[in-house]
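New to this. Please check this record:
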Amino acid sequence: MPGVRQLKAKYLHDLHGLMKAPLPENETNRLAVLRQFGILDTLPEEGFDDITFVASQICGTPITLVSLIDQDRQWFKSKRGLDISETSRDVSFCAHALLNPNELLIVPDTREDERFADNPFVTGGPHVQFYAGAPLALPSGEVLGTLCVIDNKPRELTEDQQKGLRALARQVMVQMELRRHLIEFADHMAVQVQVEAALRESEERFRAFMDNSPIVAFLKNEQGRYTYVNRPFLQRFNLELDHVIGQDDFALWPDAAPELREHDLSVLTGDGTVSIIETVPIPGGDEHYWQVYKFPLQRGGGTGRFLAGVALDITQNKRYEKQLEEYQQKLEEAFSKVEAQSLTDVLTGLNNRRALERKFEEEFKRAQRYQLPFSVLIMDVDHFKSFNDNFGHPAGDELLHNLGQLLAAKARTSDFVARYGGEEFVVLLPNTNSEGAFKLAERFRLAVEAMPCSHRSITISVGVASFNAGMDNSATLLAAADKALYEAKGNGRNRVVQAQ
């Protein structure tokens, strides 16, 4: 008999038309942690968009999202292949992933899953039929959302694709944590610097605080000349205080100065803190990246302004980002090789059955949509079993390899040649009517008949079928060609029969 949980789920499904995900036991704490990150409703960021791009490439899906689950909605920090920025939590796939922090949520066919079959994103646009989500989980167990991939057709993920999705989900959390720490640190330091600079009740206290902080700090006047720098500034750039005070950026680092001055002027004309990434060389000539927070300070008792700034050396982070980009490129190259191998028949070097099914469906739909001519040939090696019995399987494999090479050489550039299985081959002929298809089939048959073979002469039987408006799907066309092949074999072999 069904348990209480199953009965409750069925009741909710019948009542609302779709099965909403139950709330996690730690929902209150989970929402509090999510809001501590301060990431909801923020602008897109390159770091997150890079991750969704790589996830889409790895999994081969048109839609990839970094989804964060708020109290009543799911909001997308990064999205690829989807125009909307948020949806109701009631229709969220990702909300179901909150319940299992250590597991991927994979739905191979949403139409067969009672949790999602009636979901408006399944029954309507974008017609979600496949979903896989990797939880964005903290070590303490709270799940903030998912990195998810979506397709509009049923499918599965390989083990390597699942591992890649998990790895990228961890990188999302790294980006979120880094972002939170930088903002918290910058906010704290900006407030502290402004308070200390405004009060200035104790110059010694201010200098002691700034000289012992882990950040580089400075003040400039409106002309861009340094009026104050802290001890970490001098140590980081190997400078003496009297060589800095009264100087501007043009004197200290002339190559970077124009850009630095442009940033300073934009800050002085505003009122808030501005976050900028700047490049300034350090002794030795190495270029370093700095996360700089600049803000204006009003001169006490006057109308002039100072520019204050604090900076963190983020060169290591930039190098990590470069390594991540290189890793992404290697991943893409590796998956491209795997994809190519998965679509190639090892023995003949032709396209395999999986590649054929994909191409066949694509060409059939194109012919159906635009009413274009389209034909298909099915070939079978005559008496191949006796060839194997008499000369052995290695000889049979060599024959199939040579035959595959011959078919590829005789095919046109637009034709698609594949090994269908065993001694059967299929050739797709886009933009080719029945008359042209018959001629091409004869060309293949005669070429095989003339093909040198060290054991005995080889012939093939060929079935030909052409698309017509009465065919509902590609299987109908393939069945017609297969029936014609059967007739060719029954009528004596070594001949071409065209389906009627």
